[in-house]
Specification:
The chain has 16 helices and 13 strands. The protein has about 350 residues and is α/β, with parallel strands linked by helices. Strand 2, helix 2 (about 45-50) and strand 3 (about 60) form a beta-alpha-beta unit. It binds uridine-diphosphate-N-acetylglucosamine and uridine-5'-diphosphate. Uridine-5'-diphosphate (UDP) binds near residues 261, 280 and 286.
């Protein structure tokens, strides 16, 4: 039986791996899950393992938070130890976090095959930590699983040929979970929210958590006529408190600060929001899957398809642009060229991995 070591550690990984791990379990492959613990709070971590039926990690590396160099270095050191012990046929990594890069590097140094899920995404901004992580990971991986045609084009332009266009595993996860969420989530009742009477926001990107950007975004929120529901990433919460913006938002009638919520609950919050304001990659796509207008608090996006179709508008952290988009942004509801696959990306990826290991 072939052995795959999956290295994960951050919230979006758990969602991305859910359907892939399911497929691995159905095939003649053994999966060893290594959790770096880059994310460790209950709401950023355990809640997903409980809810999404993901295999419990075989290893917890307990790396936690720290500077980029510290975090990446610690993960690299500790994943190497696991790989030496497990001697897998392939290491699987997802996305563009420090856990992704360090997991891939550890495998590359030991000459173990690497599969990268969500390969080929580019913002063309090397100041983003994620851009460095994804470019390096793509260039040291053996199997590049590209979610979109745009991703394939980006890989091709960098001279990489070992790609497979599979569709997006987040679309698979979305399709699998939205119905379950509709049946089971009580989040609207718990928060006393009415459909389409609120906006939903999430913020966590490095470019948005400096004092100026968070201040400008919060000022725009203060002007909103609709309630803004804000599940707050723990890193962002720390900065809101440090800049003394937290108390103002907490007292404000039109902002509802809550802890991060489960995947099923966020899907329901997204589906019933009038508009979504976010810097999250995953949430930009989910807004698009659900046909909810998305206002992206960045000056560029990797998910250009959502902007090309007019469902997503880029406003960075500019107060006036955010306020105008909250008031006026409306997509043309007839334009929608879904380009994220057929919901079977996970199945295709696992099949390709099996064949590649055989060779
Ligand atoms: C990371 C990824 C980012 C991804 C995001 C998903 C990198 C470089 N960034 O950003 O690409 O979009 O995860 O959510 O890998 N913290 C806690 N508890 C936790 C986790 C974090 O308190 O469980 C706090 C810590 O103060 C930490 C800060 O949040 O320093 C940032 O966490 P970190 O994992 O470094 O980066 P993210 O912003 O989460
Ligand atoms: N998410 C969640 N609960 C929350 C906020 C986000 O389950 O309170 C989910 C979201 O629906 C998406 C994923 O987490 O599937 C995105 O993760 P995040 O925004 O942390 O990272 P990014 O996608 O930007 O890398």
């Amino acid at each position: 039986m072939y052995k795959i070591v999956t290295v994960v550690g951050a919230r979006p990984h758990f969602i991305k791996m859910s359907q892939v791990s399911n497929e691995i379990a159905k095939k003649n492959l053994q999966e060893i899950v290594v959790h770096t613990n880059q994310h460790y709070d209950y709401e950023m971590n355990n809640i997903f393992f409980k809810q999404l039926n993901i295999p419990e990690p075989d290893y917890h590396l307990e790396v936690g938070s720290g500077s980029h160099g510290y975090q990446t270095g610690e993960i690299l050191k500790k994943v190497e130890q696991v790989l030496l012990k497990e001697n897998p046929d392939l290491v699987l990594v997802y996305g563009d976090t420090n856990s992704t890069l360090a997991g891939a590097l550890a495998a590359a140094k030991l000459k173990i095959k690497i599969g990268h899920i969500e390969a080929g995404l580019r913002s063309f901004n090397k100041r983003m930590p994620e851009e460095i992580n994804r470019v390096v990971t793509d260039h040291i991986s053996d199997l590049l699983f590209a979610p979109t045609e745009t991703a394939v084009k980006n890989l091709h332009n960098e001279g990489l040929k070992n790609f497979h266009l599979t569709g997006d595993v987040m679309y698979d996860a979305f399709l699998h979970n939205i119905k379950v969420a509709e049946r089971n989530s009580k989040i609207l009742e718990e928060l006393e929210l009415k459909p389409k009477e609120y906006l939903l926001t999430t913020i966590h990107r490095a470019e948005n958590v400096d004092k100026k950007s968070l201040g400008s975004i919060s000022d725009a929120f203060a002007e909103s006529e609709k309630l803004i529901v804000f599940p707050t990433h723990p890193g962002t919460l720390k900065y809101l408190k440090a800049y003394k913006i937290f108390d103002t938002l907490k007292k404000s009638d039109n902002v509802l600060l809550i802890k991060p919520v489960s995947y099923l609950d966020i899907l329901i919050l997204e589906k019933n929001a009038k508009k979504i304001l976010t810097d999250s990659g995953g949430i930009q796509k989910e807004a698009y899957f659900l046909k909810i207008p998305c206002i992206t608090l960045r000056d560029r996006t990797e998910w250009v398809e959502t902007v090309d179709d007019g469902w997503n508008i880029l406003v960075d952290s500019d107060k006036e642009k955010i306020s105008r988009a909250i008031r006026e942004f409306e997509p043309n509801r007839h334009v929608y060229a879904h380009k994220f696959g057929d919901g079977k990306a996970s199945e295709k990826i696992v099949k390709i991995m099996g064949t590649a290991i055989d060779k």
